[in-house]
Amino acid sequence: MVPSTVQQLxxxxxxxxxxxxYQAVSDRLRGPxxxxxxxxxxxxxxxxxxxxxxxxxxxxxxxxxxxxxxxxEGGPLAGVLRHPRQAGLxxxxxxxxxxxxxxxxxxxxxxxxxxxxxxxxxxAWDFLFADREPCFVRIRLKGGLWVGGWLGSRSAVSAFxxxxxxxxxxxxxxxxxxxxxxxxxxxxxxxxxxxxxEVLELLAAPAPAPVPVARREQDDDSTERSEREGRQGRQGRQGR
Length: 240
Prior knowledge:
Layout: H1 6-15, H2 17-30, H3 39-69, H4 78-82, H5 84-113, H6 124-129, E1 135-141, E2 146-151, E3 156-157, E4 165-168, E5 170-174, E6 180-183, E7 190-193, E8 197-203, H7 213-239
């Protein structure tokens, strides 16, 4: 429901938005929680957190907020129109800054009490592909078939809470033992559902083979000889 009056907008700001900002910062620091993925659960939690914060605001700054919102003869919330800067500062502090700080403080306290460090990445799948450099991917499906390809800038990998799946921008042929045999002709990518994957392995691109010292020296001699012959040819043309 979209607020259609000033009063409805004020209720939305007071009862929902502080809790939404709290949850957003908390999810960023702790990672999404499975119990909070249902929309109704998140809405109820946002309202509960907003109600708690509103109670704290009323105790700490109730008289100042009452004067700011007092419309007098101008109607409800007319004080906001008379003091727009103070109203904007109040919204910034009470809706954004304080809930965000409270979520950060709660996360710090929780981490200190936990015996083990909590990794905010929600699943091993997300951890595996987070900030991943381009590489080869080798997949063994549940039916025993090997699938592989190149994970590059045009590839895509799902993230929590979406179902696990992966798109590789180019497909490669694999042998019966999973050995890469070569790029598939005309490939434009391959898609694999996470529910079909039994084993997934990431492989760094092989480094270029080093050039033998003797060959490098031979190449250097050839380059030097070519440059010398080129200079002699230019000098001969200039002499003529």
